[in-house]
Amino acid sequence: MAGGGMGDMGSLLKQAQMMQKRMADVERELGERVVEGSAGGGAVKVFISGALEVKGVSIAKEAVDPDDVDGLQALVEGAVRQALTAARQLKEKEMAKITGGMSLPGMGF
Q1: φ and ψ of 77, to 5 deg
Q2: By three-state DSSP, how is residue 68 classified?
Q3: Of residues 5, 18, 91, the one with CA closest to residue 48
């Protein structure tokens, strides 16, 4: 009986190592994928990778009004918030393909 338990443990360890490698591959791929958040009808766009790194910001000239800096700041904030939400959803979706939707503590998703 003890021998069967060790075989099961070895199999479980191997599966965990394979899952860890697949997760690292997905993390690397997420770093290359970019999502967009926008505000003001597309006047402000923010581009964020699936690894949650800001890749770019685009602001249309008509969104820049020196008399309304607060408005521009609100647009940028909204676009960033939208892009971060999209990036987090992308990451959760891709990781769920590996974990079967299981939430694993300490894995960052």
Answers
A1: -60, -45
A2: coil
A3: 91
